[in-house]
Amino acid sequence: MSAVVLALLAGAVVGLALGGMGGGGSVLAVPALVYLLGFSPVEATTASLVIVAITTATSLYAHGRDGNVRWRAGLLFAAAGLLPAVLGGLLAARLPEALLTAAFSVLAAVAAAGMLQARDEAPATGGTNTARAAGAGAGLGAVTGLLGVGGGFLGVPALVRVVGLPMRAAVGTSLLVITLTSTASLAARGGTLSALDWTVVGPFTAAAVLGAWDGRRLAARVSGRALQRVFGAALLAVAALMLVDAFVLR
Q1: In degrees rounded to 5, what are phi and psi of residue 93?
Q2: How far apart are CA 189 and CA 193, in angstroms?
Q3: Which of 111, 106, 100, 56 is closest to 78 using CA atoms?
Q4: CA-to-CA distance for 141 and 209, rounded, in angstroms?
Q5: Can you tell me the distance from the alpha carbon of 218 to that of 222, in angstroms, rounded to the nearest whole number?
Q6: How far are the Cα atoms of 31, 83, 115, 247 from residue 100, in angstroms, in the given order?
Q7: Helix, strand, coil shares of the chain as percentages rounded to 5?
Q8: Which residues are within 8 A (CB) of 94 and not within 5 positions of it... i.e. 6 or more apart?
Q9: Structural element, H or E, at residue 94
Q10: CB 127 within 8 A of CB 164
Q11: From its phi and psi, is residue 95 left (phi > 0), alpha (psi between -120 and 50) or beta?
């Protein structure tokens, strides 16, 4: 199967995750780029940031039109993560690839566990703790910059529990946060963009954008719990594969 076809298929799955759940696409994009398309971990995390930033920006328009984006809360949350995102992006280029793979696999396993639990959303808090919100935003930015993940699977719960947003607004607002932090992370990796294979990244991104629109429609018809469990099971398998690669095969 050609690289372009694989990129289109993987991009569609990533888009479905982002559109249907407001996150989770990037933790599927990186292993797809590494194991299906032959990217190095550093190249994959950079390409993932490109794919996620563009896909979430296009999805953000639709969610904003529907009134599901809390612009002020999202901007404040993202602002706390911009500098950590840049610093994480600079650090990623200096770390061993095996370490990046191991760190990503652990994060993917944590994300998979959260998806498989498929709990009901936590009740919104009565008010926002500014310090906690800033800390959560900074942590999300650092993870985005270092590992090339948009952080929606971490950002949505934080926006619900820390900022106090209802789930639908948290999903829409997380897209704003992801767009901003991913773009900031890319700014720190500008020198690596020219090394990407754009004949693969381009189709991957286009399929992700289209998949995100389908994901929004799918989420309206299929149980959110069912979607989370399907993606969680796939992600857990990916995490196990990457741990074996990092600690056994190298």
Answers
A1: -70, -10
A2: 7
A3: 56
A4: 22
A5: 6
A6: 12, 20, 22, 12
A7: 80, 0, 20
A8: none
A9: none
A10: yes
A11: beta
Q: Which amino acid is at 10?
A: A
Residue 153: closest CA among 12, 19, 22:
22
DSSP code per residue over 159-227: HHHTS---HHHHHHHHHHHHHHHHHHHHHHTHHHHTTS-HHHHHHHHHHHHHHHHHHHHHHHHS-HHHH
Angle between helices 41-65 and 3-21 (to 10 degrees): 40
Taking only the tens of pLDDT, the chain with its 250 residues reads: 788 999 999 999 888 877 766 666 677 788 889 888 989 888 888 898 889 889 888 888 888 888 888 898 888 888 888 888 888 878 877 888 778 777 877 877 776 776 677 554 544 444 556 777 788 888 888 877 777 665 666 777 778 777 888 877 887 888 888 888 888 878 777 667 778 899 999 999 999 999 888 777 776 676 656 766 776 777 777 778 777 766 665 5
Q: For residue 4, which amino acid is it? A: V
